[in-house]
Design a protein that fits this description.
heterodimer; A: alpha+beta; five-stranded antiparallel sheet; 32% helix; 25% strand; B: alpha+beta; two-stranded antiparallel ribbon
Chain lengths: 149, 154
């Protein structure tokens, strides 16, 4: 794993979404990448399309939560480096799913009526090659850095 | 038909909808989404190869593609002892169980039908999310063995 160090953001509101806002140390003090509204627009459009589908229709709450996190992941990932638009899908349980892949790693975020979760995957062993838990700014930042490593 | 044990050496075929969110191309490389193994009952359906001469026969819709995972890999994706009072009393395990469909009022007959199931039965969505992630990870090793198509084969 790379030796990137997480530090607390000076400009972001502390404990947004129940966890401290952090960046990689190297990214602080640098201007953000040019803001690209296109990725957000395409993500929002994709979720709107999912809601019009005939099957695997996500719930309203799941889409609302996913929409909030689309902005948050964009912001976090831009600060930490390596942003790319997530692959967005939905499940039989009405969840919205964001996924990213890099080399042998995968990061999956689930949004449902019950909240948001993440799964960080680096192999098929469910108990030794995956980390999972509630999605917060902190857990996303750590998982994102592992994805980039 | 009497169900039989699925051999470790058998492949398991999963039908993947064409032009769906079940897969994508990242920098030109095919990757399967966890959603490719989603299932309402948390027991994804697959077909066993010993009863399928042609993998294309596992397609649910004529334009579907076929992904595969190895039975041995599926079984190795989870082997955690269940300890109670310091004593092993069982094992969390994943298995491919032969569940032939025959004379079902709703579903078409499929003697090759299997389900990927967990023991103990999955009760939490979180555990099922990990199972889907494991299966997608395994399927990524092989890619499509029958590619999806725009139009149905003649």
């Amino acid at each position: 794993m790379s030796a990137v160090r997480l530090v607390f953001d000076q400009i972001a509101s502390a404990f947004a979404n129940g966890s401290p806002a952090v960046s990689s140390e190297a990214s602080q003090g640098r201007p953000l990448h040019p803001f690209s509204i296109v990725d957000i627009d395409q993500g929002m459009n994709k979720m709107a399309i999912l809601m019009q589908g005939a099957s695997r229709v996500p719930t309203q709450r799941a889409v609302e939560l996913a929409s909030e996190w689309l902005w948050l992941t964009f912001d976090r990932a831009n600060k930490l480096g390596g942003w790319s638009r997530p692959h967005i899908s939905s499940t039989e349980s009405g969840e919205v799913v964001f996924e990213w892949w890099r080399n042998h790693r995968n990061l999956t975020l689930y949004f449902s009526d019950d909240g948001a979760e993440y799964i960080d995957v680096w192999g098929p062993d469910m108990d030794h090659e995956m980390l999972a838990g509630p999605l917060t700014n902190w857990s996303f930042s750590n998982a994102w850095l592992r994805l980039q490593s | 038909m009497v169900p039989t044990i699925v051999d470790n050496a058998e492949d398991l075929y999963r039908s993947i909808r064409a032009d769906s969110d079940d897969y994508s191309y990242q920098n030109g490389k095919l990757v399967f989404s966890s959603s490719a193994f989603d299932d309402r009952d948390m027991r994804p359906s697959v077909d066993r190869t010993s009863m399928r001469a042609d993998p294309a026969d596992s397609r649910i819709a004529p334009t579907d593609g076929i992904a595969k995972v190895l039975t041995a890999d599926v079984r190795n994706s989870c082997k955690i002892p269940i300890i109670k009072n310091g004593t092993p009393v069982g094992e969390h395990a994943v298995d491919a169980i032969h569940r032939p469909i025959e004379n079902d009022p709703i579903e078409t007959d499929n003697l090759a039908h299997c389900q990927i199931e967990c023991n103990p039965v999955i009760a939490s969505g979180s555990r099922f999310k990990k199972l889907k992630a494991a299966l997608a990870n395994l399927a990524n090793k092989h890619g499509f063995i029958v590619p999806p198509s725009k139009t149905a084969a003649p």
